[in-house]
Amino acid sequence: MEAQNLAIQVNGLRKSYQKLQVLKGVNFHVASGSIFALLGSNGAGKTTTVRILATLLKPDDGTASVNGFDVLSQPARVRESISLTGQFAAVDEILTGRENLVMIAKLRQVENPRRVADDLLGRFGLADAAGRRVSAYSGGMRRRLDIAMSLIGDPPIIFLDEPTTGLDPEARIEVWQVIQNLADSGTTVLLTTQYLEEAEKLADRIAILHEGTIIVSGTLAELRKLLPSAKVEYVERQPTLEEIFLAIVGSDRTHENEKQVQR
Questions:
Q1: CATH of the domain at 225
Q2: Taking all residues of the chain, what is their mean pLDDT, rounded to a whole number?
């Protein structure tokens, strides 16, 4: 893939904390406008990698560029190109949803902060809850608001560090829809997750980070080819636990949220 089509390039990243080697030579690239999933268990080095790419940490060795800018020599240009959403929603619970968005828009000095806020509230299916305090929001609503806040200023690249941690199944599906819509609109998404299903549903490419190194990388179809062919047996398909859960509690609210987000 040509360099001009790459949003992120990582080569030989290494990082240690005292005697603990966290990254041991990490290599991967992310195509512009795609969803790239960095998959790994707790402690694999996912958050450390994201923090280096967001210029919050300096690597011990290796190189990385984001939106064509080197993370070490051009950190200010990198920060102008990205937004970072961590594992926990960074929202002010005392303020309303609209007030949170307006506050960030003013801090980032964008024009017409109230219009920007209202546009994002509509885009993320939060218009009806705009005047409510965030303390009354559900987990999925808080996460959607958090992602909406991260998009103020239209960054071309967004890092989502385990964005669905702690969310219930319905809220997780809401966030998945938001992430897919981001990529469909041209935003490059680097997603870290420990949920296999999350990576399978969303990612254009997947890299598995294990004990500080990328052990395999590719599309889901490419990764499936690494396994031996399975014996074909015809059996009655059983519903998944997720399908059972949604059927019991009702999925009308989830479908309505997806329609609102897509508007």
A1: 3.40.50.300
A2: 86
